[in-house]
């Protein structure tokens, strides 16, 4: 049932304040402002040597964002790779390592193969899945759930923000267990997570403006997405979403890599979407953005009010998201990139919920 929405994807985008809140309530004790995992852990975060994550597609971008959290908040070394590469690399794994597999369906063939490899290597095996009864869940020592309900649209939206909510909580739990986060910092970070659903509701209100921008994107042949730090995987996710449902070629790039090649592509006909909420790295991203503006690139900036105030000239459009802590900002920043892809696809007239050549669950490699 799509409710009042034209597509499941739109319905699922709009469910996110609820699905994020539902997922967070599983991992947090909101009253006490503490992280509170319900699962019995077959390992001790304090003793882990390393975290190794594998996943595919959007779930891989969730892990790529989480890498920043685990490294920064828990001082835990992290590796992440797409499962189709990881499984054949057969990397050496350290004793006392945790392997974490992220999958909405829990049936993705490459992710399952990566899991079996890690289990065979004696790693602790955990998964983050949306389907409890799935194969990946069954073969894991501990299963962390995303509680976003069934996702019908082939393009993942609410599963991603649920994965991120769970991963942010797990990174916090790891940080507390490893002594990297004290009680005050924990309470502050938990409050940042608690404030997320209402910030997402506010971000969804920029839909009217996004429809206008999407109209112009639908005329583009290529679109570049730029981000730095945890906004880099958000940029890649934005590009993936646009490609898969609108069939417009898009690429996500680390903002600092621009001058190492892709800037050669920039001209008046190329929209460049810059994901840069205000944080300590924003200034760097803005200077990359100005390099694009100087070459006539059409810039669409996703930022908050502080970021907009510093952005300078030459920007075609600014999509404002609420100002939140830089911890949760990458989760919030996925909302406008979802809406941009969705509305661009609607203008293109594609089959948004069932894009050509794609399957919801990729059970063959
Ligand atoms: C993109 C998308 C895919 C999936 C990928 C992994 O919108 O939906 O990239 O994220 O196929 O699927 P799961 O999470 O089921 O392992």
TrEMBL record:
Top EC group: transferase
Domain of life: Bacteria
Residues in SIS domain copies: 41-180, 213-355
Catalytic machinery residues: 360 (for fru-6p isomerization activity)
This enzyme's EC code(s): 2.6.1.16
Leader peptide range in chain numbering: none
GO BP terms, alphabetized: amino sugar biosynthetic process; carbohydrate metabolic process; fructose 6-phosphate metabolic process; protein N-linked glycosylation; UDP-N-acetylglucosamine metabolic process
Protein localization: Cytoplasm
Gene Ontology molecular function terms on file: carbohydrate derivative binding; glutamine-fructose-6-phosphate transaminase (isomerizing) activity
Catalysis performed (reactions): D-fructose 6-phosphate + L-glutamine = D-glucosamine 6-phosphate + L-glutamate
A single GO cellular-component term on record: cytosol
Keywords tagged on the record: Aminotransferase, Cytoplasm, Glutamine amidotransferase, Repeat, Transferase
Quaternary assembly: Homodimer.
Functional description taken from the UniProt entry: Catalyzes the first step in hexosamine metabolism, converting fructose-6P into glucosamine-6P using glutamine as a nitrogen source.
Name of the protein described by the UniProt record: Glutamine--fructose-6-phosphate aminotransferase [isomerizing]
Species lineage: Bacteria, Pseudomonadati, Pseudomonadota, Alphaproteobacteria, Hyphomicrobiales
Recorded name of the encoding gene: glmS
């Amino acid at each position: 049932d799509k409710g009042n929405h034209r597509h499941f994807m739109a319905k699922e985008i709009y469910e996110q304040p609820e699905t994020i809140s539902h997922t967070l309530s599983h991992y947090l004790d909101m009253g006490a402002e503490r992280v509170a995992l319900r699962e019995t852990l077959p390992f001790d975060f304090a003793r882990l040597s390393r975290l190794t994550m594998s996943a595919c597609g959007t779930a891989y971008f969730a892990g790529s964002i989480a890498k920043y959290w685990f490294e920064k908040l828990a001082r835990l070394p992290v590796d992440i790779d797409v499962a189709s590469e990881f499984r054949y690399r057969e990397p050496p794994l350290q004793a006392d390592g945790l392997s974490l597999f992220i999958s909405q369906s829990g049936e993705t063939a490459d992710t399952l193969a990566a899991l079996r490899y890690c289990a065979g290597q004696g790693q602790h095996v955990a998964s983050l899945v949306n389907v409890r009864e799935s194969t990946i869940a069954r073969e894991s020592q501990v299963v962390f759930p995303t509680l976003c309900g069934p996702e019908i649209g082939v393009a993942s939206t609410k599963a991603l923000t649920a994965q991120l909510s769970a991963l942010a909580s797990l990174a916090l739990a790891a940080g507390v267990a490893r002594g990297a986060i004290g009680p005050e910092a924990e309470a502050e970070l938990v409050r940042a997570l608690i404030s997320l659903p209402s910030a997402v509701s506010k971000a969804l209100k920029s839909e009217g403006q996004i429809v206008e921008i999407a109209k112009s994107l639908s005329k583009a042949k290529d679109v570049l997405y730029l981000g730095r730090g945890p906004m880099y995987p958000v940029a890649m996710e934005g590009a993936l979403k646009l490609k898969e449902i609108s069939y417009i070629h898009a690429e996500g790039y680390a903002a600092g890599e621009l001058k190492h090649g892709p800037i050669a592509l920039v001209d008046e006909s190329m929209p460049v979407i810059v994901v840069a909420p205000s944080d300590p790295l924003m200034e760097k991203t803005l200077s990359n953005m100005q390099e694009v503006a100087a070459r006539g690139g059409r810039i669409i900036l996703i930022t908050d009010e502080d970021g907009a105030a510093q952005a300078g000239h030459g920007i075609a459009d600014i999509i404002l998201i609420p100002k939140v802590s830089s911890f949760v900002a990458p989760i919030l920043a996925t909302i406008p990139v979802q809406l941009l892809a969705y509305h661009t696809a609607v203008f293109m007239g594609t089959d948004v919920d069932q894009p050509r050549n794609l399957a919801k669950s990729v059970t063959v490699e």
